[in-house]
Amino acid sequence: xxxxxAFIPLDNNRLAHLCxxxxxxxxxxxxxxxxxxxxxxxxxxxxxxxxxxERAVGLxxxxxxxxxxxxxxxxxxxxxxxxxxxxPPTRHGAGDDGEIVLHTxxxxxxxxxxxxxxxxxxxxxxxxTFGIGPAGTGKTFxxxxxxxxxxxxxxxxxxxxxxxxxxxxxxxxFLPGDLAQKVDPYLRPLYDALxxxxxxxxxxxxxxxxxxxxxxxxxxRGRTLNHSFVILDEAQNTTPEQMKMFLTRIGFGSKCVVTGxxxxxxxxKGMTSGLVEAERILRKVPGIAMTxxxxxxxxxxxxxxxxxxxxxxDKAESDVEPAERQP
Length: 327
What we know:
- By secondary structure, this protein is α/β, with parallel strands linked by helices.
- The protein is 40% helix and 13% strand.
- It has helices at 12-19, 24-33, 50-65, 73-84, 114-125, 139-152, 179-183, 188-198, 200-209, 240-247, 274-282, 302-318, and strands at 2-6, 36-40, 43-47, 128-132, 158-162, 212-214, 228-232, 255-260, 288-292.
- It has a six-stranded parallel beta sheet with strand order 6-5-7-8-4-9, sandwiched between helices.
- The longest helix is centred in the C-terminal third of the chain and has 17 residues, at 302-318.
- It is globular.
- The model is unreliable at 91-97 and 168-173 (pLDDT under 50).
């Protein structure tokens, strides 16, 4: 099917911002929807299946409407992810029932895919939530956003960030500095999210007041965490004993979010991941929610989704018995 669409009145600046450098945005839309896009000035021709062509034209119009200024790569990628959803999540207006409004510095923060929306709802409705899936699906960022929101609403008294100190295939040796300085490199993704959602100055003041805390997972034993929002990141690198110890630290008025990617386990060969075991054991426990993300939920550079899909396909093939493989 061929659809023709013209942007009238003609605005060359908007067209330039829409198409991107050397039409890179158009090429990305073509790849996402499996369509062919050609243009001449303000007239666009989109060829593909009826559904895909209509969705591509709809995205072009949506981007053109916001193309008064250059479209940031992140904004473009998020719009592309939303448009490629088979049934995009409903956007609620202010005051609508079921609306998820998080009080952070990012006014536009919301779930971009069905799994992300479900993840946010699980965090808000459950005391313990697991977010399991590949890199780039927003597991950590959305967890930190919910933590910041809870702190802003006085729903909790502090945010506590932790993760196992396991290197990704490297041995860095002994790190200099005090406890915080030793753990900082491992918690950098959480810091980045905090700076984005709160701003550097507010994060610094929150640490000074004790409203934000970092704690190595190994130092959590014996603590009872009341009125806290606790985030355990990179949980795939916990041992079963560490995971059980961590989950039993949760006290009254607290929420806990555990995130991890079971395809990137850095534990010694033969050691069971605490996240894998916890997912199996706790799946049906009331009060605990599990959210599984897939490559379709990746909101980073489009290559990240393709990389994840390629690794998943290779793993699925390697799980097949050699006798069953095609020559």
